[in-house]
TrEMBL record, chains A, B:
<dbReference type="Pfam" id="PF00356">
    <property type="entry name" value="LacI"/>
</dbReference>
<dbReference type="Pfam" id="PF13377">
    <property type="entry name" value="Peripla_BP_3"/>
</dbReference>
<dbReference type="InterPro" id="IPR000843">
    <property type="entry name" value="HTH_LacI"/>
</dbReference>
<dbReference type="GO" id="GO:0003700">
    <property type="term" value="F:DNA-binding transcription factor activity"/>
</dbReference>
<keyword id="KW-0804">Transcription</keyword>
<dbReference type="GO" id="GO:0000976">
    <property type="term" value="F:transcription cis-regulatory region binding"/>
</dbReference>
<protein>
    <submittedName>
        <fullName>LacI family transcriptional regulator</fullName>
    </submittedName>
</protein>
<dbReference type="InterPro" id="IPR046335">
    <property type="entry name" value="LacI/GalR-like_sensor"/>
</dbReference>
<feature type="domain" description="HTH lacI-type">
    <location>
        <begin position="3"/>
        <end position="57"/>
    </location>
</feature>
<keyword id="KW-0238">DNA-binding</keyword>
<dbReference type="InterPro" id="IPR028082">
    <property type="entry name" value="Peripla_BP_I"/>
</dbReference>
<dbReference type="InterPro" id="IPR010982">
    <property type="entry name" value="Lambda_DNA-bd_dom_sf"/>
</dbReference>
<keyword id="KW-0805">Transcription regulation</keyword>
């Protein structure tokens, strides 16, 4: 049988209103009264209706993280880091997998249809950040991902152009001449910004730009990387290096190279992007751009909590995530 | 400025109570009235207070999935599958990473502190299922994982003893004589039930049981598998096969074998458990026990939704997830 407010009041010898005041942290309650009510709550195992309480206090200490796919190791590792960063601040994270679908992303912008969450960290795919109207979002929102929101929204991301420039330049510095790129058609702006960095590096080194070495692929998964690599191997003059726009593509490409009996990095050097754990344990281990995921998680959570509390900067923030190039066996065996 | 119920009422030319009745789907409202109110809601962009509405209707169409760690590919893939299975039924899944901590698992049993969720799919680590009192759980609950709940709770799991017997028997059928096991100390009952199947298979084949070939490890991650494999290679008589109690351990072990210059499967054959995508793309690809994750996801969601709707079996269900042994290069190169 459910314990009610009136049961607590009867046991504590106070009015229902007083019990309610204690539960809702109202001021002007004596320590003695508070202690009596709390003892009665504990003795009866009363569970306050937190939904209603949160609505009144206006805070739940839950936030949501909306990501396109949790089975992608980058998002899984990022989600775990954001969950830990929030927990250090006493906040619980609920993760929503949108699959990049318009309907699911709309639910995010609508504040998760009335869930008791204080704010949302959102990595959009279908929704263009520039089309998100801040006045229309139901909850404080921090954006992740390649595309800037034009100053309208807080945004945390890696400088993908510069990172891709560095990854490509690393391959050039090893003397590679025919450097392919896999993933130039990637969604949510990733393909185009990383291609920009790749092309800039080729140009800076005076290497020709060969369109047959740029593969769009159909997605950012292992099978897409494997298929793109097979396509590259059919070229009359195949590449001697590949910059894959994420680690999953690179791991798929490595599988194709192994099946073809080609040596990595001797025949083909491979660089990825994300530094997922899988690449560190792979043989050969994967050279990759390593965004500081802990930094990203910590700063995205702090930024969102500042917005929720109303203590943040007045201007919207655009934070750039630090990264390093992790050189491993796939380029320097 | 927030649109209020009274604004909608004024525009529709009806009472506030009528607007409220339409929003809450009360019967006895004429189609004409409903159309007027819905037109006013659309015109003003009114967003009903769904929190309050859900409390009255008693359903939110959100469920939670509580897992120990989302960066573990098995849980990431399972979470993605459960999210899809729920979406097919119009339900949104919110994922909570407990890290297996007692406090976070208690939050799950308490019904996620008032979140508007209809039920929870829960993979516990610290909380012993037999100690979960159904009368104390705040929400309908379906348990995942190795440990049975003694009939008190709905439970969905692989028959890990039989699956481990099959994995070990596969190695025996290849003529391997010294078969090690990595992960026997694994948490949440996994280590002990899989060891049971491993030992049974050795016994059935008349192979001796050598305690020095059973490694507990400190966890179920790649680094634990790599460290355990290094330990096995220091033995005077190292193993010619290893059954790792999950794929991450196996991938770590494969890395150690590659670094040691040993050939897989010629020198050491390796079997994992989980069939994560990483193992399928690895070189050599990983032989593994493949639980049907889609089946698991679909049945766990269906079972929970039946409980929520009150339409399920009266008796608690214990569902056994089908699995196959996927034979790949790590045992049959």
């Amino acid at each position: 049988m459910a314990i009610r407010l009136s049961d607590v009041a009867a046991r504590a010898g106070v009015s229902v209103k007083t019990v309610s005041n204690v539960i809702n942290d109202y001021p002007h309650i004596t320590e003695q009264t508070r202690a009596k009510v709390e003892a009665a709550i504990a003795a009866l195992g009363y569970r306050p209706n937190v939904s209603a309480r949160s609505l009144r206090k206006g805070r739940s200490d839950f936030i949501a993280l909306a990501i396109p796919e949790m089975a992608s190791p980058y998002f899984a590792e990022l989600g775990a880091a954001i969950s830990r960063a929030a927990k250090r601040r006493g906040i619980t994270v609920l993760i929503d997998q949108t699959e990049g679908e318009a309907e699911a992303e709309k639910l995010v912008l609508d504040g998760m249809r009335g869930q008791l969450i204080d704010g949302i960290i959102f990595s959009p795919i279908t929704t263009a950040p520039t089309r998100i109207d801040l006045a229309e979002t139901a909850k404080p929102l921090v954006l992740l991902g390649e595309r800037h929101a034009g100053g309208g929204l807080d945004h945390v991301a890696v400088d993908s152009v510069q990172a891709s420039f560095d990854a490509t330049t690393h391959l050039i510095s090893l003397g590679r001449q025919r450097i392919a790129a896999i993933g130039v058609g990637g969604g949510a702006g990733t393909g185009s910004v990383r291609r920009k960095g790749y092309r800039r590096a080729l140009k800076a080194a005076g290497l020709p730009h060969d369109p047959s070495l740029e593969l769009a692929g159909t997605g950012y998964h292992r099978d897409d990387g494997a298929a793109s690599m097979r396509e590259l191997l059919t070229l009359p003059d195949p590449p001697d290096a590949v910059f894959c726009f994420n680690d999953l593509l690179a791991l798929g490409a490595l599988r194709t190279l192994a099946e073809a009996g080609l040596k990595v990095p001797d025949d083909v050097a491979v660089v990825g992007f994300d530094d997922i754990e899988d690449g560190r344990y792979h043989s050969p281990s994967l050279t990759t751009i390593s965004p500081d995921k802990e930094w990203l998680a910590d700063n995205a959570v702090a930024l969102l909590l500042d917005r929720i509390a109303g203590t943040g900067e007045a201007a919207r923030c655009d934070l750039t995530v630090p990264y390093t190039l992790q050189i491993r066996e796939s380029t320097c065996g």
